[in-house]
Protein 1
Amino acid sequence: MAKIARTHVHVEKKNGQVVIFGAGEEIPAWATKLITNPDVYAPDDGEPAAEESEPGAYDGKSDDELRAVLTERELPVDGDTAALVERLTQDDAENQE
């Protein structure tokens, strides 16, 4: 079974019930099939995935997901998608030094 990294994942069952999985939790096979964002999974070694600043690290993330990361980092959440990604990428670069 897969494990969730440093986040929470909401998975909606066919009956409309929403199940929330938290960081470090094992994900059952039925839920794994419904999770479309591969970035939520922890590496196979069981350690939570590190937040990376590789090119495209924020590709495919919704504005709400980007704003959630910005909020965690206590950064401004205004602007369009490009501004949000730029702010996160800049913060990543500053914190890697």
Protein 2
Amino acid sequence: MGSIKMTENQVVLSGNLVKLVAIGGETTGFGLESTIELDLRTNYLEDRFMENANVSVVGSFKLVEGVETGKRYVFVVSKIEENR
């Protein structure tokens, strides 16, 4: 599965990268397997996406709202690194 580490100013999530699909397209399109929806676009990190790669991501949570999904939190990634 994955893991979450939190400090006072930072959250680090680890797990396998996957593509997400939702009715009406109301998703960022990226996530960590069975963990949380990721926003890679805000910080222009889409090109770092590698399907099923085991990664650690750093960032913060943001509340977003969609017509179909309502309000939900996504994790806005500011840094992504492949776990070795």
